[in-house]
Every structure is written in structure tokens, then in C-alpha cells.
Amino acid sequence: MIALALSILSSTLIFVAFKLFSRFKINTLHAIVVNYMVACCCGLFFQENALHFGDISRLSWFSFALALGALFIIVFNLMALTTQRSGLSVVSVATKMSVVIPVVFGLLYYKESLGILKFFGIILALAAVYLASIKTKDSLKIKASNFIFPILVFLGSGIIDTSIKYLEGEYVAKNDIPIFSATIFASAAIIGLIIIAVKAIQGNFQFQFKNILGGIGLGIPNYFSIYFLVQALRSGIFDSSGIFTINNVAIVMFSTLTGILLFREKLLTKNWIGICLAILGILLIAFEKM
Prior knowledge:
Structural class: mainly alpha
Shape: globular
Distance between the termini: 13 Å
Radius of gyration: 19 Å
Number of helices: 12
Mean pLDDT: 87
Strand content: under 5%
């Protein structure tokens, strides 16, 4: 339970970091790349077993981790594109609703139980994500020409969570969680640096120290959000379907409340209903395990 709570806290801090990016006009791409480098360093620092690069490349999960790093960058750019074309609410809903993918995977692949309480808890959780994420009086409005982008964000985010669950269960040794995470972030950082290098060649790069600070502030909670999520998945307190549902819904709930307390965001009635449904959904899933 402690690992799950720390994963939720870390992910909420990521939300705070992104809000501060907007306030201080930090270049998101530059900060994201620095963030991946910092997260990689965190993984190397917390790795207990000494490993040489040649040893890492021979581990069974290495190629999967490289692919996940590439997917991190791809999904990030898709999220940015979706935000520009359809708004932040659409991205928030698409990202958090993707919890359906790892939940279904856990139920089918690992034959996890689906009692009546968990079923209704998951349904309420999905409704909560939708209602808590919409910050306008109208419902989500997406042009037909832009519809593909939130779908890709939905699929990409869901595949990332599902892959992390599968790899930690099938390939990653307990002591290798830090280096596994570091490899994912290193892959994402390298691809990000290539993107920045291309932009620099095109004359679209400007160094600003605040982007470095922003990346550091984002990288530390980003690393621990993955690290503690893997620890929570291994704790046995809930099935993976319950872990992912509680994790995603609690992040939405606490991020929304943090927006009120720190950034004086005003919530609509539907947002408050979403928060209430989130609490109820989490309780139902928790009671199923008791």
C-alpha cells in the first residue's frame, strides 16, 4: 500500500511540474529530455548490483526497454499534438482512460478475478476519470479530422502500462527494477536528444537554464512514479487490474484537488461528481480484496 501511495504522490508531483512549466514558460520538449536523463541517473544511482553496459545489453528485457523508451517519446509528442488540436481535457481523458488496456490484459492474460465489487468499481473509476478531467461546461468536442490523435494517445499510454506489467512479471528480476527503469529513460533521452539536435541544425534551438531546472524537477518524481508502480504491482495487495485502476483514478483525483489548492483552479459540478465517483470506485475495488 505504501508503494502504491508513493507512486500516486510521484505522479501528482509530475502534474505540478507541468503546471509550473506553463507558468514559467519552460520549453516542454527540452525539459522532457532533461527529465529522462535525470530519471536515468536516478535508476543508476539506486541500482544495488554493479552492472557493466555489456551486461545490461545481454539481459532478456533490454530490447523491450529500448522500445518502451521510444514509445515514451512518441506518446509525449502525440499528447502535445492532441493538446494543440483538441485541448488539454481530451489528452487527460485519453491518457487516463487507457487504464482499460492493462486492466483487460490482467483479467485475460493473468486470469485475475472480476467480482461484482471490482466490476462496478472499475466502471465508476472510468466515469470518474472522464468527469474529473473535463474543465469546460461543454462535453469533449473533437473534430473528425483530429480524432485519430486521442485514439493513438489512448493506445500508446495503455500499451506502456501493459508492457511494464508484463515485463516486470516475466523478465525483470527484483534487484534489476532500478536499472530496468534507467534503461527505458536512457532510450527516451537519446531519442529526445536526436530530436533537439535536428531542431538545432534547423536553427530552432535556444538554450535556457530554466529548462534544465524544469527537467530536474520533473525527472525525479517521474522516475519514482515508475519505480513505485512496479513495487506496487509486486506487493500482492491488489491484482494488477486493481492496482492500475486505483493508481490512475487516484492520480486524477489528487491532481484535481492539487489544482484547487495550489493553482486556485475552479471546478465544475461534474468535476466534483467525478472526484466523488473516484473515491467510491477505489473503495469498491479495495473492499473486493478484503
